[in-house]
Amino acid sequence: MAVSSSFHLARDPSQVRPARRRVRTLVVGWDIRLDEATRTALDVITSELVTNAVQHSKGAMLTVAVHADPVRRLAMIEVIDGSLILPRARTVGPDAEAGRGMLLVERLARDHGAERAEGGKRVWAQLVLPEQPLSRRQLLLQPCYAARRLFDRFRPPQRPPRPRPGARPGTPAGGGRRVAVPPSAPGGCLRAARPRTPHASTPPSPSTSCPTR
Fold first, then answer.
1. Which H or E run includes 105?
2. CA separation for the pair 46, 21 (Å, rounded)
3. Is 68 exposed, middle or buried (CB count within 10 Å of its CB: 0-12, 13-18, 19+)?
4. Does this model's pTM top 0.70?
5. pLDDT tens, position by position, 5-53
6. ∠ CA(113), CA(118), CA(119), 5° rounding?
7. Interhelix angle for 36-56 vs 101-108, to 10°?
């Protein structure tokens, strides 16, 4: 079941840490499990998006929205500010102390983007959540999904089918498609069967073509 929430904060550098902490609190409060890698990616993406809005936007306030879908294992962070200038990744030198924000977002996010919105722009990033345990809410409200999850979790791995006894090398294990081989006549001749005529009372006798000696 998808969930979402949003909050406002002042466009000030001191609000980056509270924004990061609040985003993580929202996600954990939705009973979404985060491993160490996902928690780090969530913190870095939130920090970079808010920092970019603080430094390169207009207005006194920012809006941060958080969306999560545990079933699809996706979460999205978006920051809305009052500037129409879209961010872009810059090429920076190895000794530069700034300018790597969007490069980090691009590296950590599953997908990201920016688009103009009413009175400003919307910058977002999407990341993949780890596999979630079944919650009591899912067991009660989504029994079919919960049953499918349990079946997939405890289903034994499928073994490859065994080859049939006497099968030729290269023959599919399941048997594959068989190709009919014309029978041979005595003396190494190959019988060429004539097509059957419908409504014929007596089937025609096959002709025999033998190699010329």
1. helix 101-108
2. 9
3. buried
4. no
5. 999 999 999 999 999 999 999 999 998 999 999 999 999 999 999 999 9
6. 105
7. 150
